Amino acid sequence: MTMWNKRPVFYMAHTFGERYYVRDTLIPKLESIGFKMINPFYEENGEWKEGQIDLKIKEEDGILLPDMPDLFKEEKPKEIGNIGALIVSTDLNTIFFKCDGIIAYMPDSSAGTISEIWSQGFINWYVQQKNNNFIFPDITLQKLADRPVFLLTKSDRNFNHVWLRYACREIFKNEEEMLEYLEREIPSLVREVNARRPRY
């Protein structure tokens, strides 16, 4: 028995401030066209994910942001690092070992979302370097390499950014365009991810 679903299983990278839109609108649309989405903040039933730190929210210039100073005001710097290590390691473990790829929603720049995108982009780069040097000892990295990453953004800067273009298979500025593209690609994505998934 494996953890894998017959549908492509994708990690839903997104900003904290957009979590309700992603949970209530975008993920249902993606799942209706054939994806199985993993939300880092919420369980499938919409409940806050057990073990996930419940960030407080503040409003700044009309934008909802996680209130990091309020969250960490009682913590010492070392403890803040420990909390960050827990969040990052949990998300990376989900991306690397429970998902076939990433779909990211990033209306504007977000350090966390970009890092999640680049966790996959770095593996692609690393594997290419190893291949170029004819050294490839790690079969796990080979299986992780070149997994699809798709980005939806409203930002011209993100849409045209060379680093994001390198890390992402496709970047979209329009939700409808992205959904139409992904729905067309579902059959080939199913074949692709099933060929890459580990066999038990």
What does this structure look like?
The protein has 200 residues and is α/β, with parallel strands linked by helices. It has a domain at 9-48 and 99-196: Rossmann fold, CATH 3.40.50. Helix content is 51%, strand content 14%. The protein is built from eight helices and seven strands. It has helices at residues 19-32, 68-72, 77-98, 111-132, 139-144, 156-160, 162-167, 175-196; strands spanning 9-14, 36-38, 57-60, 63-66, 101-105, 149-152, 170-172. The strands form two sheets. The chain has a five-stranded parallel β-sheet with strand order 2-1-5-6-7, sandwiched between helices. Strands 3-4 form a two-stranded antiparallel ribbon. A hairpin with a 2-residue loop joins β3 and β4. The longest helix has 22 residues, at 77-98. The radius of gyration is 17 Å and the shape is globular.
